[in-house]
Design goal:
Elements lengths: L1 H20 L5 H23 L1 H5 L3 H27 L2 H8 L2 H11 L6 H24 L1 H27 L5 H22 L9 H25 L5 H7 L3 H12 L6 H21 L12
Helix pairs in contact: 1-10, 1-12, 2-4, 2-9, 2-10, 4-8, 4-9, 5-8, 5-12, 5-13, 6-8, 6-11, 7-8, 7-13, 9-10
Amino acid sequence: MNILLAVVAVLGVSLSGPLMAATAAPVLAIAFWRNALATGLLAPFALTGHRAAIVAQSRRGLLLALIAGAALAAHFSTWVAALKLTSVAAATALVSMQVLFVIAIDALRGRRATAAVVGGALLAVLGVAAISGVDLAVSREALLGDALALAGGLFAAIYVVVGAHLRTTLSTTAYTFTCYGICSVILVLACLLFGVPLWGWSLRVWGLIVAVTVCAQLLGHSVINHLLAVMSPVVVSLLLLLEVPGAALIAAAALGQSPPWGTYAGIALILAGLALVTAANGPRRPVEPLVAD
C-alpha cells in the first residue's frame, strides 16, 4: 500500500510544476490558495475525528507545527517564483536538492556523512553548476530562478525533517490540516502586506489553482505527509526525485518547454548524485527530539 501511495504522491507532485507555471496569477496568491483550499477540504475530517489530538499538542508540538508551517510557506513562495523565472525542468531538479539539505541538517545534529554521501553530494553540486551555467548563458532571470529553486529545496528539507517528528504524535489528517492552516495564515498575511491580489482572475486560472490543489497538494504533499510516518525524510526525498523527469516531460508536452541539452546533463548528474547519497544513507533511524518539551 505504501508503494502505491508513493506512486500517487510522485504523480501528484510531478504535475505541480507545470500546472503552477501555467497559472497566470501572482506567486503568493497561488501558494495561498492551494493551501487554503486544501485546509478547507480537510477541516470537516480534522475537526471531527482528530480535534482532540490537535488541541492537546504540547508546547514542543506547537513550536514544531509553527516551524513546519512557516517552512512550507517559504518553500511554496520561493518554488512558485522559481517556476515563473526558469524552466520547469531546471526548477524541479534544483528544488529536489532538498535531500542534501536533509543530510546536512542531520550532520549539524551530529550524524557524520560517509565517503559515498560526500561523493554523491559532489555529483549533485556538479549538476547544479551545469544547470546554472546554462541558465546564466540564457538569462540572469533564469539564474535567479535557479537560486530560488535551491532556496525552495532548503525550506522543503526543514519541512520534511520537522514533519517526521510531528508525525510521531499526530495522524496524517491532524498534521496536514495543522501545517496547511498555519501556512495559509502566513501566506495571506504576506499577500496583504505586499498588496498581492487574491482574486479577479479568469475561470481558467481558477481551474488551474483547483487542479494544483487536488493533484499537488492533496494527492502529492498530503500523501507524502503520511509516508513520513513510515519512511525516513531521506527516503521520501529520494522518491521525490522521480518528480524531475516527470515534470520535465509534462512541461515539454503541455508548455512546449525544451531546455538546452546542458540542462538535461545537469539533471542527470543531480539524480545520480542524490541516488548515491540516499543509498549510502542507510535505513530509517529512530526520530530524535528536535527541541525539548
